[in-house]
Batch of 4 targets.
Target 1
Amino acid sequence: MIINEGKFIQFDRILSKEAVLLMLEPHWVYNGSNGDNEGGMTHAYGFATHITTNTLNEDVVFPDRTM
């Protein structure tokens, strides 16, 4: 549904485009003292989405982009 901007395959819209964008926005960003970053793997989190920040030697999945 995220790839399809809130639509379930070719059927009805379940989430608004605005809701999908809100889910992909960081709502918590680790600053070194505001929580547990799970050993360096979590530096930003959205509504039900883990967002990579490409922090060196920690949460890099693809060096040229965030996920």
Target 2
Amino acid sequence: MSRFLQLPEFEKELKKLSKKYPTLIHDIEDIKPVLLSNATGIGKNFTIIGTSEEATIVKVRIHCESLRARTIRLIYAHRKDSIEFMYIELYFKGDKENEDRERIAQYLKSIS
């Protein structure tokens, strides 16, 4: 059975953004079947931004109903040794240009 986990920083971002974009929690739930069928995603909305022996880091653009034709960025790690997904970061491109590379590096360091 797969597990979807969240870093504490992700939980804070989700809480803050879901107040602004009410459909966001449901939109994130909609991506889970896709991740379960292909852990690194399918198509142009998925980009592998890092790999290590333990995990693959992926950035995915999620369609957010509250944003109409715009997307939210979700950064997650897929653990290669288990069916585990760790949500690392969530942001709207209009608020923040790029992912937090330091947070990703800290996560990778914590699992190695």
Target 3
Amino acid sequence: MLSALVLVPLCGIQAQETNEVEQLKRQLRLLQENFDRVQREHKQQIDTLTQKLDELAKRQSAEAEKKKLEQELAAELQKNQPAAATQTAPAPGGGAQTATTGWSPSQPITVARAGSAYMNISFDALVAAGTSTANDIDKLELGGHDPKERGFTVQNLEMTFDGKVDPYFRGQANIVLQIDPNGETTIEAEEAYLETMSLPWNLQVKAGQFFTEFGRLNPTHPHTWSFADQPLVNGRFFGEDGLRSAGARLSWLTPTPFYSELFFTIQNSQGGTAFSFRNEHEGGLFFGRPHNQGRVKSLGDLLFVPHYAASFDLSDSQTLVAGVSAAFGPNGSGPDQDTQIYGADLYWKWKPANAHAGFPFVSWQTEAMLRRYEAGVFPGDAAATPPLPAEALTDWGIYSQVLWGFKPRWVAGLRGDFVAPTETAAYETILGRDPDRAQRWRISPNLTWYPSEFSKIRLQYNYDNRDGIGVDHSVWLQFEFLLGAHAAHKF
């Protein structure tokens, strides 16, 4: 009985000690787990900080190397510069100090400078290669810079000179070289003009040789086109070189809350660059008649072109630009015969606010034109052409194009063209159908890749349907490269 009473307290003591051991083991295990967790977290933090330090060191090294290369390039270029560009900055304690600014690779190459005047220079080359089922590709493609033959076509080799003349004027000249199918090189002064910079009342004067501001496409150069060739209506109404001539233009930026500008141009009306006006058409017949009315004799022999353009922001991501144009002048079919061309254009663009490098985007551009050509009386040539009566010839045309910049540097496009006469002319009933007035239409899908802002590669297919001739298929691969920074173009 006594032994039993002694064993009961001993068992209680042993059980208590066992519980304390288990508690201590659990506490030790928890401490060990917490220690391991904290150690892992600290290791992750250390690894993250180490990685950030490595990236920062690499970035600083790359920036230092880039800065060093830019400085070396600027120093090398400044050796060939007549003088460095300067800017005025505030000096410590008041006054001003002059600092020399370095050249950036994204800036134009300045080849001459005299005080505030300077001249930039650039060179742009546009070349196409391809084939067509047409036997008369020169009649199929109406533009002078369009692909003209199977194989290779040097479409445009353009040198651009632009710069500030003085505080009052800036100037620009575009000298173009082309190589014809016979391998002969031609050169022309496509544009050479000055513009005022400081006229009051939002006025500006432009004078010299320049593209007429009619519609959206005519004032632009081939390398800015979204397709490998120009629209049919531009070729039929303005000829292969576009509407341009020597003259002067006055513009007024109206004081409205949106962009709104009026233009009025006066130019010479003769030559191949005034195709629908006093053009001799190289001594051949045009609309069945010879055209030769000599040079300008009075104010009535000039070409007058009013134009109006306005732009509206429909939203943060959408812009609409609309314009109307007209051109009035004499033509070469008779002493009192005139030509009138009317046009309307529309441009819409969508680009989201978070677009990167201009992509993605969608744009839509359309131009419609109508030409009324007063053809004079032709007494006839007994040996070749019968007499023709005076008549008014009315033709119209339209093109519409959509571009989709679906990813950076990639743009898909689709254009539709249509041109037609409003009626059969009297001279056509006598001489037969005139292909220069025949109805025709074209569908052109293309795909353009821009490796950089200084180059592009474009693949285009044309489906042409000409009334009286039939269907032709053409495929063109176009390549462009630019040396130097080109002068800016309109939106």
Target 4
Amino acid sequence: MKQPLTRARKTSADLLAYGLLLALFIVRFFYIGSMDLAPDEAYYWDWSRHLGFGYFDHPPLAAWFIYLSTRLFGDTLRGVKFMAVFSSLVAAGGSYYLARRFVSRTSSLFLFVIIANTVVLFGVGSLIATPDVPMVLFWSLGLVFAYKAALESSRSSWAWLGLTVGLGLLSKYIFALFVFSLLLFLLFYKGLRRTFPWKGLVLALALAFGVFLPNLVWNWRHRWVTILFQFHHGVAGANYTHFNFLGEYLSGQAGVLSLFPFLVLVWAFVSEWRAIRSDPRKGFLAFFCLVPFCFFAITSLQKRVEANWAAPAYLSGLILIPILFEKLQGDGNKLKRLCIEASAAVSTAALLLIMIHAQKPFLPLSPNIDPTMQVRGWRQWARDVVSVEKNIDPAMRLPLCGNRYQETALLAFYAPGHPRTLSLNLDARENDYTLMQKGLDSTAHGAFLVLPTEDRELPPAINAYFIRSRRVGEVYRKWNGRILDSFGIFEVEKR
């Protein structure tokens, strides 16, 4: 029978775990100063320069987080990325706090801290400023408050749960799956249904709605633009089934979670399935894992699902691994324990290789399939664009302009002085620049348009928008002497 942690063992385990988390935080803090921004990170940074309760693509919390961190570190790499690193520290601490309620041995808790922080999804995700950052943070904290409220009868946790759910919804709309997971969990276990304080849950949901309400009002004023975009982008799909997309989704989960931890997680679910059906405590972990995982598995039958969308599933699901590990310790099964330890070692090694490769590429990967190429060469590329612009227009009267949000945001961040840049969005998907530039005749007196192309002329669909255009230069995004992308610079004048 599992023995509870003694006070001394709790202190030892906590010191080890929180010390390791703090060390990871320090390493990550210094590491992010050497990384270029990815295009989407620059895009979210540009949002933070005009704060609001909503944006075209997402709710507002990603921009608010970047705004807070840039107040500390300025419009720098660390300024954009700091809240990602800090939020990962707090989220990992919340997950550890919850894991302590399920395992009693220091070795099991140490294993959990290693796996939860070195799988690719969270190890790399902690370095990138995206809407997933606040979403994962509040999902982790929400798990703690929901567990304390539902299974430990903590009355004060209901208010904290409501606040957390509201902030989670302000991060990403898929946080609604948290509420759905909680309701399904409560309805599944008869014992909970009979004695559960439903009034506390109703008050928590009312508070969550109040926190989330400003974004709903913003959407109403903007014709529900974000909600409709996310529905079509994340849920709506074709009228026929794509089993190959499901295969891509499952293989993607094995990839972002790291293959061996993913297999061990499946093993843990199978091993604990009977306990999950009868024990609400373990069922709590399972429901908050299975609901988002299965939701996106079903969604993938209609359209491609990005691998990171199911990230919340693993915040509770990974706790099943130390539970299995501790069970094997009690059974004295050294070989199976060794397999789990090896999976943690492999995921750690894989993360280290990725982080080293991002700094000094050594893996034999083509630029077309190397994801680290997204964060290379943009700083010099922006300087080259500005250099061409100054040669043509020394007074810099014409604005810098991109056709897609990616180039537009990167120019805004890396060009000296962080100028306001414009995005035409011609023959490209709409984005938040559509809203920022509404009512602005952005190219009335011409502009310098930066376009990824090797052609001497603008593509017909874009050229038709202008009365005059001429190519005035070209720049390349390079890394280690290798050309990654070619861009033409055109001086254009609107009709």
